[in-house]
Amino acid sequence: LWRFGYSARLLKTNHFRTAASNTSFPAVWMLLAQYSGTIPGLFVVVKKPRFFTMPETVEDKANLELYSPPPEVRGMTLLNREAFKRTIVVPVLKVKKEIVSGLLKSLKHVVLQRPGLKRVVEDPEDENSRLLILDPHKILEFSLGEPEKEVLKQLSVYPKVSKYNLELTYENFKSEEILRAVLPEGQEVTSGFSRVGHIAHLNLRDHQLPYRYLIGQVIIDKNPGITCAVNKTSIIDSTYRNFQMEVLAGESNLVTKVKENSIAYELDFSKVYWNPRLSTEHGRIIELLKPGDVLFDVFAGVGPFAIPAARKKCHVFANDLNPESYSWLLHNCKLNKVDSKVKVFNMDGRDFLLGPVREELSKQLPLLKEQKTSFHIVMNLPALAIEFLDAFRHLLDGEPCSTAALPTVHCYSFSKHDDPTKDIQERAEASLGTSLDGRCSTYLVRNVAPNKEMLCISFQVPAEVLYKRPCPSEGKEQA
Description:
Blueprint: E1 7-9, H1 14-21, H2 25-35, E2 45-47, H3 58-66, E3 86-96, H4 100-106, E4 120-122, E5 129-133, H5 146-154, E6 161-168, H6 175-182, E7 194-196, E8 199-202, H7 212-222, E9 228-232, E10 245-250, E11 255-260, E12 263-268, H8 279-288, E13 294-297, H9 306-311, E14 315-319, H10 323-335, E15 342-345, H11 349-364, E16 375-379, E17 396-397, E18 408-415, H12 420-432, E19 440-449, E20 452-460, H13 463-466, E21 467-468, H14 472-478
Parallel strand pairs: 8-9, 13-14, 13-16, 14-15, 16-18, 17-21
Antiparallel strand pairs: 1-2, 3-5, 3-6, 4-5, 7-8, 9-10, 11-12, 18-20, 19-20
């Protein structure tokens, strides 16, 4: 699977393991499609990794030596770009300027490729010639290989390689190379970050904090469009889902515009929650909806579930306790021209379930014999959402007109358990007061940290949980 740049995570179910062991690679994906959601406890995730580190190769080690900034920059905490100048010796090929363009295409596999570096420079000895800079790792001992000699022969170019003193500056080094040269040897170096519009959001480790301002500036310098770098300084507040942050470099404007799944959102990153790593999950839930369905978004944030659902012609009820999120949710509904399709609330999640959700379900569920509407309730507050599930106990009165019409809940949670799918199911069952065996599916959303997973458990609320039936004595009195 890694060969294709994808990752897949499966629980060890004997049923799937036996089938997959005797199956060719392409057919494994057919098995996933067949069994996902039908085997209780099976959860699957298939996605391209957003952040990764390539394994170190022999060439990487050579690059470290040749393309490392000067040793004097070690321990630098305030960025001094001038200190990164260094001269290295590289091979060059002297050619007539008329054939440079064609030769570049023919020899592109051995031409030096560095950020901001010219591959062709003027020949100080001949204005009619140019020097083509070659990669010293591809032209060993300043000697061309037979394939390169054959190319030059066809173009009538003399295959002589010369030495050239090439000055490298701060602009020619990659961010990883700069940070590796600055931070103490042997310590972890990271140049990864989450991009939120023009903002780079870093989550630095303790040993990186003395260098945080330099790191922030390097991230801005090396990533076009990034004009502000921030570092998280506290854990996410479980009430409003925002966190304290420090501006490391660049402008202090934290109001930004992002685009996710072709939809634009505006927000103040310092006051609301936004995670670009959840775009795939937002899209997955929206794919489950059909035009005319009803979506209740209990912890809506700035609208990444609510707005695309409204654009899909669903009826949306969106709520968030954070006044800032509520304000930006209203703003984004207008921005995307769906404000007439989304009813927005600024309430505690439990009050939203016991109020608007109960009212709407009580009004619409009895009519479903004549309608083909599905009800979905999204609860994306992984730190606490499962604790709100008990609000569904006896939420409605009477009897269900159809079990197919029972609302489907998509509840998110974190788990540090060895068996996260079992953990989230057991905790959901404890809140609901009933078993979900055979009645739920669990989906791995992402790995949050070592030994910490974010999951989504989906299930139809059981009728015995959702409805409060009148006791026999009440029925006799009414008769």
